[in-house]
Amino acid sequence: MGLVGFSNVIRIPAAAFSRSIVPRSSDISFLSACPDLDAAALMLETGMRPIEISHLRKKDISLDRDCLQITRSKTKASIRRVHLSDKAKAILEARLKRFDGDFLFPQNDVDGSLPVKALDIVHRSVVRKIEYNFRLYDCRHTFATRALESGTDPITLAAILGHANLRMVSRYAHPSEERKAEAIRRMQKPKQKQSKRGK
């Protein structure tokens, strides 16, 4: 499948990227312009693993219930229901219409083929062509970080990501510098109020 719709895409130099976080400003202008990066967009929206996305079947998707069921993954804890954002639903709906075969991510995008074997290899090929440098797994890290920053508790996040314990969550979450600075500011506020009362 050819790359389309890139006239308005913002290209960000590789040096502008952190090790694991995909800049939020690029999500819509970049990922939505490139159907070849549906897997990356789904990871940003759901936190799913590449293997979980590559093996999605039509029967796993329940758009009317805003969810999908993962039936193949790394561990037993990873077999789970995934709730869908509006963006994730739109991506899956387009894939359901595009392919008549069982798998939504068939090898080489050939309808009716077995699932793509290595999404990360496909991803690297696409980003090299468009000079947009980020790893596919960065999207899962980014999802976890944003979830924590939005107030999702670690236990719920572990379940969303398909982890059996909290230890793995810390590997995926990378608080931004602004979030760390905000934490210090919040800690200061009670101290400042107490100081004013003492005067």
Question: What does this 3D model show about the protein?
Answer:
With 199 residues, the protein is mainly alpha-helical. It is 45% helix and 4% strand. It has a three-stranded antiparallel beta sheet, with no helix packed on it. It is globular.
Descriptive keywords:
single chain; 199 residues; mainly alpha; 3-stranded antiparallel sheet; globular; disordered N terminus
Which helices and strands occur, and which strands form pairs?
Layout: H1 27-31, H2 38-46, H3 50-54, E1 61-62, E2 67-69, E3 81-83, H4 86-98, H5 119-130, H6 138-149, H7 154-161, H8 169-172, H9 177-197
Antiparallel strand pairs: 1-2, 2-3
Helix pairs in contact: 2-6
Give the strand tally: 3
Query: If you average the pLDDT, what whole number results?
Result: 76
Number of helices: 9
Strand content: under 5%
In short:
By secondary structure, this protein is mainly alpha-helical. 45% of the residues lie in helices and 4% in strands.
